[in-house]
Design brief:
Keywords: Chlorophyll biosynthesis, Chloroplast, Heme biosynthesis, Oxidoreductase, Plastid, Porphyrin biosynthesis, Transit peptide. Strands 4-5-6-7-8-9-10-13 form an 8-stranded antiparallel β-sheet. A 3-stranded antiparallel β-sheet has the order 1-3-2. Strands 11-12 form a two-stranded antiparallel sheet. Helices cover about 35% and strands about 25% of the residues. The protein is α+β, with helices and mostly antiparallel strands.
Amino acid sequence: HWLVGDKTSTRGGGVLAGGLALKSRSHTARRPQVDMERETPEAAPPPTFLRGEEASSGSSSARARFERLIRRVQAEVCAALEAVEEGSGGGGVVFREDAWTRPGGGGGISRVLQGGHVFEKAAVNVSVVYGVMPPDAYRAARPDAAAGVEKAGPVPFFAAGVSSVIHPNNPFAPTLHFNYRYFETEAPQDAPGAPRQWWFGGGTDLTPSYIIEEDIKHFHSVQKQACDKFDPTFYPRFKKWCDDYFHIKHRGERRGVGGIFFDDLNDHDQETLLDFATECAASVIPAYIPIIERRKDTPFTEDHRAWQQLRRGRYVEFNLVYDRGTTFGLKTGGRIESILVSLPLTARWEYDHDPRKKKYTNFLSLYCLNYKGAAIF
C-alpha cells in the first residue's frame, strides 16, 4: 500500500520534496520508482507552484485551494513564532528561507529558525509536487475504483503539504509537530477513463518533557473543538490513531501525549475534508502559542535540562527508527539536511537510565509507559 507521508523536504531518491514521502506498508514490496524532475533553487518563492489553469489566482480547484492553505499556514505560524521571539528579547532571530521549483511545475519552501531565545529549532516547510508513481499506489488507494485497470501503467500524481516541528529551549515548554497534506492521482497513463483518486492526511501532536495538566488539557481541547465542528467521531478516532502511531516499540513508550492523526482520509466529500484540514491547520497557533507564552520563561536547573535532553533522545529514536517518511528518505538517498530537519539541535542518552531515581523527572516516563489514551483528557 503506497502512501504519502509527513516528512520534510528531501531532494531526490524517490522522496517528494518539502513535506511528503512515498512509503510502502508492505515489507516485501519493491522500492518505489518515482519519476520527478530535479529542483532549481529560487531567489524568492513564486506566487504559485501550480501549473496550467490551476496557476490562476482565482482557481477554485482543490489543488489551488490547498496550496493557498499551506502557504498561508506556513506564513502565519512563522510570523507567530517570530513574534514570540521578538517579545522575549530574541529580536533579530528570524526564519531562514529556501525556495525551489521544478521545470514542469511544483516546488517548495523550507523555513528554519535556529538558536533563538525561545526556540532552539523550528522548521515549517511546504511543498507542491507533480510526478509519476507505480500503478500499485493507484490500486491501493481504493481497490473498487481501480477495477478494470489491473494492468494499467504508471500513474501521474499531485501532492501538497505543510510540515513543521518546533523545539523550544525551556524544558517546561513542549515540542510541537504538525503536518497537513493532500494527495491526488490522475488516471493511469494507459487507462485514460479510470477515475481520479484523492485523500487527505495530517495531524498535530504534543511532546512535553514535563507533564503539566493545564497545558495538555488546553492542547487537547483545541483539537477536540476543531474535530467536533465536522464529526463527533473524529476526535476519539483520530486521537487513538495518534496514540497508536507515535509509539516507540523498543521502549514500550509513547513519544508524547498525543493529539490527532489521520491518513488516507476520503470517507467524506472532498469539500468537507478540505474544510476540516483548514480548521485543523488553523488550530495550531491557538493550541500551542498560549502554552509557549506560559512556559518559555519558567525557571529551570541543569537537572531539568538534562531530563529534557533524555526525552529528546526518545524523539530522535522514534523519528529515525519508526517515522515512515524519515526512514524512507534515508533508504532512498534523499537530501539529508531536509530529512533530518525535524530533529532537535541537542539530545542525550545515558546508559541504564532509571527515571525513578531522579526527582526532577516528574512522572512523564511512567505516564508514557502506562498511557491508555485518557489519563489526562
